[in-house]
């Protein structure tokens, strides 16, 4: 119903969804037309070690969304928590550089997979 009215109704999911009943509900795109990764795209999940990127969790959510014909609301490039520990030791200039690098790498990787 939401999709028919031009709205996207969705839910946050984890990349390791194994609950077949929940997946069946999600795959009903009449109800859900959007997925948001709960934690898989947050900074500590994608760049736990500086400049070492890991996208498997986010890729899994994108795969589920593609299989069900849903859009992905990528979440989140910068968050007040769930940041890697190595950020705590950076100067302002280093932090800005790390932020630019992180956003560039993540958006380059996910690109058109995200509608927002």
From TrEMBL:
A Pfam family hit: Glyco_hydro_10
GO biological process: xylan catabolic process
UniProt source species: Phytophthora infestans (Potato late blight agent)
Entry EC number(s): 3.2.1.8
Protein name as it appears in the record: endo-1,4-beta-xylanase
The organism's taxonomic lineage, starting at the top: Eukaryota, Sar, Stramenopiles, Oomycota, Peronosporomycetes
InterPro entries recorded: GH, GH10, GH10_dom
Domain of life, per lineage: Eukaryota
Entry annotated with the keyword Signal: yes
Reactions this protein catalyses: Endohydrolysis of (1->4)-beta-D-xylosidic linkages in xylans
